[in-house]
UniProtKB/TrEMBL annotation:
Record SMART domains: TPR
Record has Signal as a keyword: yes
SUPFAM superfamilies: TPR-like
Protein name: Tetratricopeptide TPR_2 repeat protein
Signal peptide region: 1-29
Length: 333
């Protein structure tokens, strides 16, 4: 299903909300959120001020999970729209561990690469970016460093720069499955679904056992409204990697929300995802347990995308598709 985004209006609403919050604070009004949630409120405000609107919305939703009737947190949220959950994109850093030598990085620069990897793991993406750029001054065509820089840039939401890194990496090595797969995820995140499908298919052509590529190909097909193709890709990802909790979760969501829901199978895949370590999703559990007329889901649910941070390199960043999933249901009690 194609969706119409209203980001300018949404950002205006966020700005209006934040201005109201600041005005109330200056006037000495009572706390806008419960005292025990003030830390989260400050976090949301800081993320907004840094331009990270998706992360700010996620923070306000955390507040609403504990204070669902809080007017000030609700005022920021957009009206629900329809989609399915894509799950968290999976990326990796391709350096070797500090205890070994990576053939893809010049030995003289291995210490720098290790330092960049450690900065990445600590969430210091700006430092990691700087180190990788320094290495590229000496080794501009290094595939591993270009790939790592692309990942770091993505973590900082520098999507066009990340795209350029992986495009250059593919020009150097046209059959690098990781670069094709990750570029596909970058395109997908930008809403460029057709080229995302093309890159993900190229990744699969290089390595047909790439479960990650199949998973995100399923995500992209679902975004374009091709439910059967999406289901096949999720099933393939699970067959290739039986421990891929994200693919089980995605398939559960697809089966529960498609035009002809199959709640029994959705529950089976969801339970398998939980066994593999996926976090519980009470709203999705209610969705699978409650059906209205013609198997329509209950209207007052608010599913939230779950992140498996051990697999995900994207941290708190919400893709447009993840935002669609959160918009699917209203917050009305």
């Amino acid at each position: 299903m194609a969706l119409n985004y209203r980001l300018p209006m949404r950002l205006l609403r966020i700005l209006a909300f934040t201005c109201c919050l600041q005005a109330w604070s200056l006037l000495g009004a009572a706390p806008l959120v419960p005292a025990e949630l003030q830390l989260l409120a400050r976090e949301g405000k800081e993320r907004f001020e840094h331009g990270d609107y998706f992360a700010a919305e996620r923070t306000y939703r955390k507040i609403l999970a504990q204070a669902p009737n809080n007017l000030y947190a609700q005022d920021d949220l957009p009206a629900p729209q329809g989609s399915v959950s894509p799950g968290p994109p999976v990326m990796r850093v391709v350096d070797a561990p500090a205890s070994s030598s990576s053939p893809g990085i010049p030995p003289a620069m291995q210490a720098q690469a290790n330092e960049a990897r450690q900065a990445f793991e600590k969430g210091d993406y700006r430092k990691a970016e700087g180190i990788y750029r320094e290495i590229l001054k000496t080794a501009p065509d290094n595939l591993s460093v270009l790939s790592n820089l692309g990942v770091v840039l993505f973590r900082q939401k520098k999507l066009k720069e990340a795209e350029d890194c992986f495009t250059k990496a593919i020009a150097i090595e046209p059959v690098d499955g990781f670069a094709h797969c990750t570029l596909g995820i970058v395109y997908y995140t930008q809403g460029k679904y057709d080229v995302a499908i093309s890159e993900l298919n190229k990744a699969i052509a290089v390595d047909g056992k790439n479960a990650t590529a199949h998973n995100y190909l399923g995500v992209t097909w679902s975004q374009k409204g091709h439910q059967e193709q999406a289901q096949r890709e999720f099933e393939t990802a699970i067959a290739l990697d039986p421990n891929y909790a994200d693919a089980d979760y995605n398939l559960a969501v697809l089966l529960a929300t498609k035009s002809s829901p199959d709640m029994e199978k959705a529950r089976q895949y969801y339970q398998q995802a939980r066994k593999l370590g996926a976090e519980a999703d009470p709203a999705l559990e209610r969705l699978m347990g409650q059906k209205g007329a013609n198997n329509a889901p209950a209207k007052s649910l608010h599913p939230v995308v779950k992140f498996d941070k051990k697999r995900s390199g994207f941290g708190d960043f919400y893709t447009p598709q993840e935002m669609d999933w959160m918009r699917r249901y209203s917050l009305a009690p």
